[in-house]
Automatic annotation (TrEMBL):
Residues of the F-box domain: 47-93
Source organism (scientific name): Chaetomium thermophilum (strain DSM 1495 / CBS 144.50 / IMI 039719) (Thermochaetoides thermophila)
UniProt GO cellular component terms: nucleus
Signal peptide segment: none
Official protein name in the record: Uncharacterized protein
PROSITE patterns named in the record: FBOX, JMJC
Region of interest (Disordered), residue spans: 405-440
Domain (JmjC) ranges: 202-361
A GO molecular function held by the record: cis-regulatory region sequence-specific DNA binding
Ranges of compositional bias, category Acidic residues: 431-440
Top-level taxon of origin: Eukaryota
């Protein structure tokens, strides 16, 4: 932000005496922007010694002031009045102070995300794979991760380097940041290599396992891809007010998100909903939500709550939330906290995932660079391991019998409907580490 263009009529100098002048507007209109500055002298003189600082630095210094000081300082001179009136400064000050409870309490009964103690896979497959829900009694059995707190992680992993958006920080550095930040959109620690970095074993029957996927979600068909599966699990750590702006999960996968410490407020919408304040391009490749989470809540929450399909809920420590394939979601941490999340492909969404991989190759994300054709790879693995599911999914996709036959016979060459090499991927996209693994 620069104030400079408003405080000097820099381009115009009276040639006779060398002082700046403003040429009169042909209609006698005086620009409001100069109102507080121009009285024939340098308006910045009132800054005293601080005159040596450029406008940008002054503005940055003002960001550290509390609302009262900002207001009082604005009364001291014209120049500072204009600086202290900046919308950006007040937005930051104000959004920081808006209590999140304004939005998270009094959830209308019709919007409340269903809460269930636990669920069998049969129930999930029959009734729940296309609906969000919160499991309230599920992760207490996890031997290691259910005991995690920010403080125990600090003790055990102070020097492990984690990815937080575009930066790699030791846990100690991130912990200090988390405890001290006032950022409006705080840096979110979101690391997909955490298991390797922390030396964790994941999987129910493995010796020394730290945690495992909840049984109710059943078989994850991306497991057929083995080492070729796209990034699929993350540890997520952030301070209160951090979170995720509206998005759909990558590659049409479903997800579960387990809160280990803290509490998360979720707002969700079904795949075809028009989410207030969120503009998605026709093919879904670009999502524009010009606002931070706090701004979205302030401006659009009321309307969202009244929009058909809106689901809301608070997932607390020890609980797990299900995000069905294709659902929009915004998440905000109500407290400092830790979560574990995993993306998966349940049978009920196989056709959506195949259709995404086949028809939106430019939006595929999270696969290793050397995997040129994720759709073909997945079809091949399904053909080998689960041909009956593949047949049914392709049928749902509107695939013709002839096409199915050619796939099972292994003679499906480079024919129609094959995905092209992609050039762009819309995924979690936090920084260049993600880009490395995307399809070039
Ligand atoms: O902030 C969160 O915990 C939600 C994360 C999320 O939506 C995701 O991992 O896709
Ligand atoms: Fe998500």
């Amino acid at each position: 932000m620069t104030v400079l263009p408003y405080c000097y009529p820099i381009n115009v100098v009276d040639e006779a005496n060398g002082t700046p002048t403003i040429p009169p507007h042909p209609l006698g209109i005086k620009p409001l922007g100069n109102k507080y500055f121009w009285d024939g002298q340098d308006a910045r003189k009132c800054l005293g010694l601080l005159q040596v600082l450029p406008d940008e630095v002054i503005m940055q210094m003002l960001e550290f002031l509390d609302p009262k000081t900002l207001r009082l300082l604005g009364y001291t001179c014209r120049f500072l009045f204009a600086c202290c009136m900046s919308d950006d400064l007040w937005k930051t000050v104000f959004l920081d102070k808006v209590p999140l409870e304004l939005f998270t309490k009094n959830i209308p009964a019709a919007n409340q995300i269903d809460r269930l103690e636990d669920m069998s896979y049969e129930e999930f497959a029959a009734n729940w794979s296309k609906k969000p829900f919160i499991l309230t009694k599920n992760i207490t059995a996890w031997p290691v991760t259910s005991q995690w707190t920010l403080d125990t992680l600090l003790q055990q992993y102070p020097d492990v380097v984690f990815r937080a958006e575009a930066v790699d920080w030791t846990f100690k550095t991130y912990y200090d940041y988390l405890k001290n930040t006032n950022d409006e959109s705080p840096l979110y620690l979101f690391d997909k290599k955490f298991a390797e970095k922390m030396g964790l074993t994941i999987g129910k029957d493995l010796p020394g396992a730290a945690y495992w996927k909840p049984e109710c979600f059943g078989p994850d068909l991306f497991e057929l891809l083995g080492a070729e599966r796209p990034a699929h699990r993350w540890v997520i750590i952030g301070p209160a007010r951090s979170g995720s702006t509206f998005h759909k999960d990558p590659n049409a996968t479903s997800a579960w998100n387990a809160v280990i410490q803290g509490a998360k407020y979720w707002v969700m919408f079904p795949p075809s909903a028009q989410v207030p304040g969120v503009i998605a391009s026709q093919d879904g490749s670009e999502v524009t939500s010009p606002l931070s989470i706090a701004e979205w809540l302030l401006v659009f929450h009321r309307e969202a709550r009244r929009t058909p399909g809106c689901r809301e809920g608070i997932c607390r420590a020890g609980e797990i939330l299900h995000v069905p394939s294709g659902w929009w979601h915004l998440v905000v941490n109500l407290e400092d906290g830790i979560a574990l999340t995993q993306n998966f492909v349940p049978e009920a969404h196989l056709s959506s995932v195949l259709s995404f991989l086949r028809d939106k190759p430019e939006q595929i994300s999270g696969f290793r660079r050397d995997i040129e054709n994720p759709y073909e790879l997945f079809v091949e693995r399904l053909r080998q391991e689960r041909p009956e599911l593949l047949e049914e999914a392709l049928r749902q996709l509107g695939g013709k019998k002839r096409r199915w036959e050619s796939i099972v016979n292994g003679d499906d060459g480079e024919g129609e409907g094959q995905p092209q090499k992609s050039g762009f991927s819309f995924g979690f996209g936090f920084g260049d580490d993600e880009l490395e693994e995307e399809i070039p």
